[in-house]
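Could you join me in thinking about how sequence relates to backbone shape in a protein? Would you write everything just below, so we can both look at the same thing?
***
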Amino acid sequence: MCGRYVSPERAAIERAWQVGRGNSNPFGRRFNVLPTTEIPILVAGGAGGLELAEARWGLIPSWWKQDKPPSYSINARAEEAAAKPMWRHAWRHSRCLIPAEGWYEWQAAQRTDPASGEIRAYKQPHYIFRRDRKPVCFAALLETSPSAQLTCAILTRAAAAPVAEVHDRMPVVLPDELLVRWVRTDVDQPEDVDGMVKLAQSNFAHYAVSTKINSARNDDPELIAPL
């Protein structure tokens, strides 16, 4: 899964992907992006390009009837999205991109309690990023909620090495040459969408970071500093 990530500032997004200004909201750099918050996304823009918008991280389909949003809708498994009711409409007809500098995953580990000498299990957070440190785009699904709010979910896939050393899942990170195609509404055959997912990038590195990332109150550059 992907439960926390680092989001670039607006100017960096515009530079990286030549993004049009369809949305005037400022987006600052964030080091601890949380589920259910508003995040910057890229959608289809004019002249066949990309345009900046914002959406709630946590997909709410248009047919959702309950007052409480669905649980566990921040990530969608790419292997299941074409068939599951929660995701299948967006898989075919409504996709977006989520700009990111990297993301966090937690690795199961053990350490000795200094007071008791006992071996205790804990989760060690790691920061994962492209080896050249360039920003990436997560493939995502997009839906308009019953209240007319844009909402999204990150697509995930089985982790490739070396990310698999930390966690068994990772976001689908698309190569730049597929970004515009991903958001096109006329690309609506499930096999075409699946074909793009299969071309996802896997050349990433990672290192351990502070457990300060575990607190939603922390959001500063120290969170991505290696231990």
